[in-house]
Design brief:
Layout (H helix, E strand, L loop, with lengths): L3 E3 L7 E2 L13 E2 L12 E2 L12 H13 L3 H7 L3 H14 L3 H11 L5 E2 L2 E2 L1 H34 L1 H8 L2 E6 H14 L2 H10 E6 L28 H6 L14 H27 L3 H5 L25 H8 L3 H12 L12 E6 L6 E6 L5 E6 L3 E6 L9 H5 L25 E5 L5 E6 L5 E6 L3 E6 L4 E7 L5 E6 L5 E6 L3 E6 L8 E4 L5 E6 L5 E6 L4 E5 L5 E5 L6 E6 L5 E6 L4 E5 L4 E6 L7 E6 L7 E5 L3 E5 L6 H12 L13 E6 L3 E8 L5 E7 L3
Parallel strand pairs: 1-8, 7-8, 9-35
Antiparallel strand pairs: 1-4, 2-3, 5-6, 10-11, 11-12, 12-13, 14-15, 15-16, 16-17, 18-19, 19-20, 20-21, 22-23, 23-24, 24-25, 26-27, 27-28, 28-29, 30-31, 31-32, 32-33, 34-35
Length: 694
């Protein structure tokens, strides 16, 4: 390895906190304490030898800049630190070698990104670049005959002497330093390697990369000088991006189709009523006929101004429009019977308790029509529970492959529910080689996903009751999976600090890799606008990712503990996150800004969150304290008036569930920790959890 590198002498510690909700599964995570690397002496590694070869210095600088700009979010800001000192030293070296034209071109191409930071000018950097540019222009104007005189004039000038003595010093994480020196070796540019050896000192510290100019750099100080100012962070830069065209109500989505259907029915009634009144003027029988009954009042939706609807990209639009017509009709029929949830009408809640699980239940997901529940277990099995009173018979396809409703293997279901293998309403699916940490059902309930400790995501057919496909990428555990709300895309979060978006018909590689978190991606979900993925991490941040280009669109910070659950409001403007310390936070992603913080929402981890459907949506939460709570939504737009009315209408003598002004309703169980919550199409709150004896 080439270059000058300083590493601190202290190392990190390894901790292995429990990950599974039921207990028993461990994950390892590096959590090294930050230390001051500036006191460690630099370690001089092997220097460049041999004749100059490979790309020239200017071309190598262009490649390095493009590579740093295209790096993952987690490393991009640290890898950008050496760019300015290398730029000025490369220009000076070209000037000293008599290639003033190349030095001038290099300064002209690179100065735009270094003399301004988030709209603020950096005068010291501008002065340094101006001095080098003036010397280069003077040498170019002097021509070959006067180049030696111009070089001597630069060497004796004050800026030239200052830069000749300067060695730049930057600090970055060990992983970023390894990437940086690995790239330098890969370029095989001895000129750039020699420049790094002579003019750059890299201090490597343990721990994850930091997302800001955190440790040494006042960008306006002379290159390599120390200052205590902390500059704008990558979070601020990301959140400055406008995303109003990506959030909100989806054009062609379920709410939009329901609104169009209600408008058409109302218009049809108006025309029929006008025709009846017209006939009544000339026909006595028609006048005596009763009026046409008006259709029932429309179900409140979020669709107001149709011009403000989010128009999906072509791939997402194809997914939304690709659902079977019969499925569209079934969903709209369910939505037409939706019950409004507000302060006067709390939701009905049904909670399923899994007993005799011996701590083996890790995760639960339930179908939107409340007919099916998928569960993941510590014994590496996936179990499907048919919740219908009279389950349908197996299809001919299922019978033809001889499944008989279950697929059991040689591995015993020691930690599963006793008697499950003998229950005709339970289907046991095996294929994973470790605990199953995440499950997700498709919107129509025909497919199920599972992710586990073996680093694989498996696709199952709930109709055929068999394994369909496997998706392997990281060798580390998969913590959560989530089906796309309209099509056969899905997201998976893993212990390699990245989330991946897959297509069910493409198992060899993911569609997108969403990297930027500093910790494991523990929770994943989809935004109602269908084009954004929401992720929660052990680094205590929530991120929104644009599926179209894979870039991070929002970073929502402020949590004090790892994120354990996520939910997006139906209007698309808010994201709620539950934390391991029992707190719940709600952000408005448009600003972004923090709308509400409930620090003691639960006495244990908040394992599940869910928003009710339709106007006036309410947030429900379930956690490790065996309670389900419904909160007054602190949202903007159509829900603001309802939330204000709730606070004004709170009775003086409130029941225990309403002692907190932000708590609307509460249901307590005896000993059931709530692992999953979800609202059906008709706004029935469904929950599930394991009986936990304390």
């Amino acid at each position: 390895m080439l270059g000058r590198l300083a590493r601190p002498q202290t190392g990190g510690e390894v901790s292995a906190p429990t990950r599974a909700r039921g207990g028993g599964a461990l994950r390892g995570q590096m959590d090294a304490p930050a230390t001051d690397a500036d006191d460690a002496p630099p370690v001089y590694l092997s220097s460049a030898t041999g004749a100059p070869g490979g790309p020239d210095l200017a071309e190598s600088m262009e490649r390095l800049t493009a590579w740093a700009d295209g790096a993952l979010d987690a490393h991009r800001w640290e890898l950008a630190k050496p760019l300015y000192p290398l730029l000025i030293h490369a220009a000076v070296r070209l000037l000293e070698r008599g290639d003033a034209a190349a030095a001038l071109a290099l300064i002209e191409r690179g100065r735009g990104r270094h003399v301004e930071l988030r709209g603020a000018a950096l005068p010291r950097r501008a002065a340094e670049l101006d001095a080098i540019e003036a010397a280069a222009r003077s040498a170019v104007a002097a021509g070959p005959a006067g180049s030696a005189r111009a070089q001597k004039r630069w060497a004796t000038s004050e800026p030239g002497q200052a830069l000749a003595r300067r060695v730049a010093s930057v600090t970055m994480s060990e992983s970023s330093a390894d990437l940086f020196f690995g790239f330098l070796e890969g370029t095989r540019s001895t000129q750039l390697l020699s420049l790094v050896n002579d003019r750059l000192e890299v201090h490597a510290r343990p721990g994850p990369p930091r997302l800001d100019y955190d440790d040494d750099a006042d960008p306006d100080a002379p290159c390599g000088a120390r200052a205590g100012a902390r500059e704008a962070t990558a979070i601020m830069l990301t959140n400055d991006q406008p995303i109003d065209d990506k959030i909100g109500r989806l054009a062609g989505g379920w709410e939009d189709l329901l609104d169009l259907r209600q408008r058409k029915e109302d218009e049809r009634w108006r025309l029929d009523e006008a025709e009846r009144r017209k006939r009544a003027r000339t026909d006595r029988d028609a006048a005596a006929a009763p009026p046409t009954p008006r259709p029932p009042p429309p179900v409140p939706t979020y669709v107001g101004d149709r011009a403000a609807l989010v128009k999906p990209s072509e791939p997402i639009a194809a997914l939304v429009a690709g659902a079977a017509p019969s499925w569209h009709a079934e969903v709209l029929s369910e939505l037409s019977g939706r019950v409004l949830v507000d302060r006067d009408r709390p939701p009905s809640c049904v909670l399923a308790t899994f007993v005799n699980t011996s701590g083996g239940l890790c995760c639960v997901d339930m179908a939107r029509d409340a007919t099916l529940a998928a569960t993941g277990w510590e014994d590496a099995s996936v179990r499907l529970f048919d919740l219908r009173e009279d389950p349908p018979e197996l299809t001919e396809a299922a019978r033809s492959i001889g499944l008989g409703g279950r697929r059991t293997g040689s591995r015993p279901a020691a930690s599963g529910p006793r008697g499950a293998d003998d229950d005709p309403n339970v289907c046991v699916l095996r294929g994973h080689r470790g605990p199953v940490f995440g499950v997700s059902l498709s919107q129509d309930g025909c497919l199920a996903l599972s992710g586990g400790a073996d680093g694989s995501v498996r696709l199952w057919s709930t109709e055929l009751r068999c394994h369909v496909a496997v998706y392997r990428r990281p060798a580390l555990p998969i913590w959560d999976v989530a089906f796309h709300p309209y099509g056969y895309l899905f997201a998976a979060g893993s212990a390699d600090r990245a989330a991946r978006v897959w297509a069910t018909d493409r198992s060899h590689s993911p569609v997108r890799v969403l990297a930027g978190h500093d910790g494991d991606v523990d929770v994943v979900g989809w935004h109602p606008a269908a084009g954004l993925v929401v992720t929660g991490s052990s680094d205590r941040t929530v991120r929104l990712w644009d599926v179209n280009d894979g870039r991070c669109a929002r970073v929502l910070a402020g949590s004090r503990a790892p994120i354990t659950s996520l939910a997006c409001s139906p209007c698309g403007h808010a994201v709620a996150a539950g934390c391991d310390d029992g707190a719940i936070r709600v952000w408005d992603v448009r600003m972004p800004s923090l709308l509400a913080t409930w620090l003691e929402a639960h006495a244990g981890p908040v394992w599940s969150l869910a928003w009710s459907e339709g106007a006036g949506a309410r947030l429900a939460s379930g956690g490790g304290d065996a309670a389900v709570r419904v909160w007054r939504s602190p949202l903007l737009g159509p829900e603001a008036a309802a939330a204000a009315a709730d606070a004004a209408a709170a009775p003086a003598a409130a029941p225990p569930a309403a002692r907190r002004p932000d708590l609307a309703h509460e249901w307590r169980t005896r000993s059931t920790d709530v692992y999953h919550l979800g609202f059906t199409w008709r706004n029935l709150l469904m929950g599930a959890g394991a009986l936990t004896l304390r």
